[in-house]
C-alpha cells in the first residue's frame, strides 16, 4: 500500500525534467511538501505518534522505490533521521533532514560535516558522535559543493563558537549503520531501474538487421549485470531484516560493501551497452548512474566496509557459508 502511494507521488513530482531542474538549483519545496503532507516522513513513527508504524522489512521496498526514482531530496535520510531523533525525545523539526557521514572539530573550533549527501539543499543535518546526536541547522553553515555536475553533496562548515550539545539516545554507530543500510537500498533501487533501461535499449536497438540483445556477447553482459543487481538487492534487504527501527552494523556493513561493489559494475555495463547515447546529458540514464557512483562512496565504500566484515568473519572462526548463515539468522531473530 505504501509503495503504491509513494510511487504515485514520485512519478508525478520527480519527473526527469523536475530532477534536472532541482539539481540545477531549482526549488524542491513543492515536491517535498507533497511528501510531508502525505505522511511519508513519519513511516517509522508509531501510530500513537501520528506515524505509520512500519518495521524495517516494511520500509525496505519504500527505499527501493525512492532509489528507482533518483529522488533529488533527502527523503530516505529524513525518514531515518526522524526515527533516530525519536529516541532522544526531541521533536524533529519541519524540513529536510539529512545524515552526516562524519563530523569533526577543526583546529580553529569550526564544526565540519564533510561530503554530506544533499548538503546543498538540506535544512538540517543529523550527525552522530560517541556521546549522542547533533542536530545542526544548515542555515548557519557554509556550504561547499563538490563541483560535480548535478551533485547535491556538499561539505558543511559551522564557524567556531557554535553551541552543540549531543542528544543522548543514539550514537555515531547508529547513524553509521543507518547511512550504510539506506544507501545500500537506494543503490539497489537505482540499479534495478538502470537494468530495466539497459535491457529495453538492447531490445530496441538494431545492428546488422537484428536487436543487439540477440547477440551472445551482449546477453553475457546483461546476465552479469543482472547478477550484480540481484546480489545488491539481497544484501540490502538483509540490512532491513530485523525488528525495531535500527539496522545492525554487521548486516549494514555487508549490505553497503556488496551494493557499492555492484554499483560501479552496473553503471559501467549500462553505459557500455548504451554506447554514445548513454553518456549524453539529455538521456535519463545518467540521472541514475551518477547517483550510483555518489551513493557508492558515501557512508563508506566497499573498501571500508569489507574490513568490518572481514574482521567479524575472522573473529567468528566459522566458514564463509556458516558465517553468512549466522548473520542472516541473527537478523531474522532480532
UniProtKB/TrEMBL annotation:
Protein name: Acyl-CoA dehydrogenase
Keyword annotations: FAD, Flavoprotein, Oxidoreductase
Family statement drawn from the similarity comment of this UniProt entry: Belongs to the acyl-CoA dehydrogenase family.
Superkingdom of the organism of origin: Bacteria
Species for this entry: Cupriavidus laharis
Cofactor(s) this protein cannot do without: FAD
PANTHER family found in the cross-reference section: ACYL-COA DEHYDROGENASE, ACYL-COA DEHYDROGENASE FADE28
Residue stretches making up the Acyl-CoA dehydrogenase/oxidase C-terminal domain: 182-300
Flavoprotein is among the record's keywords: yes
Domain Acyl-CoA dehydrogenase/oxidase N-terminal, chain residue ranges per copy: 1-85
Amino acid at each position: 500500500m505504501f509503495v503504491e502511494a509513494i510511487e504515485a507521488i514520485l512519478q508525478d513530482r520527480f519527473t526527469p525534467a523536475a530532477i534536472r531542474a532541482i539539481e540545477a538549483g531549482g526549488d524542491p519545496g513543492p515536491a517535498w511538501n507533497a511528501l510531508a503532507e502525505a505522511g511519508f516522513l513519519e513511516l517509522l513513527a508509531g501510530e500513537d505518534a501520528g506515524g505509520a508504524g512500519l518495521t524495517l522489512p516494511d520500509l525496505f521496498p519504500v527505499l527501493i522505490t525512492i532509489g528507482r526514482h533518483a529522488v533529488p531530496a533527502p527523503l530516505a535520510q529524513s525518514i531515518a533521521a526522524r526515527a533516530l531523533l525519536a529516541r532522544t525525545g526531541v521533536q524533529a523539526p519541519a524540513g529536510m533532514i539529512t545524515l552526516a557521514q562524519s563530523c569533526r572539530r577543526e583546529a580553529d573550533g569550526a564544526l565540519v560535516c564533510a561530503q554530506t549527501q544533499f548538503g546543498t539543499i538540506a535544512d538540517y543535518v543529523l550527525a552522530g558522535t560517541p556521546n549522542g546526536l547533533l542536530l545542526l541547522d544548515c542555515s548557519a553553515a557554509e556550504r561547499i559543493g563538490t563541483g560535480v555536475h548535478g551533485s547535491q553533496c556538499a561539505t558543511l562548515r559551522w564557524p567556531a563558537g557554535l553551541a552543540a550539545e549531543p542528544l543522548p539516545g543514539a550514537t555515531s554507530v547508529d547513524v553509521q549503520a543507518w547511512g550504510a543500510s539506506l544507501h545500500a537500498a537506494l543503490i539497489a533501487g537505482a540499479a534495478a531501474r538502470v537494468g530495466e533501461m539497459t535491457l529495453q535499449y538492447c531490445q530496441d536497438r538494431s545492428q546488422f538487421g537484428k536487436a543487439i540483445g540477440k547477440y551472445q556477447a551482449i546477453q553475457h553482459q546483461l546476465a552479469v549485470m543482472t547478477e550484480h543487481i540481484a546480489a545488491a538487492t539481497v544484501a540490502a534487504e538483509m540490512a532491513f531484516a530485523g525488528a525495531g527501527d535500527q539496522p545492525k552494523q554487521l548486516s549494514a556493513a555487508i549490505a553497503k560493501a556488496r551494493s557499492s561493489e555492484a554499483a560501479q559494475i552496473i553503471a559501467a555495463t549500462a553505459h557500455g551497452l548504451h554506447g554514445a547515447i548513454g553518456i549524453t546529458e539529455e538521456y535519463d540514464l545518467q540521472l541514475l548512474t551518477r547517483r550510483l557512483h555518489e551513493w557508492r562512496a558515501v557512508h563508506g565504500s566497499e573498501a571500508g566496509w569489507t574490513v568490518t566484515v572481514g574482521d567479524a568473519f575472522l573473529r567468528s572462526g566459522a566458514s564463509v557459508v556458516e558465517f553468512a548463515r549466522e548473520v542472516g539468522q541473527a537478523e531474522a531473530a532480532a
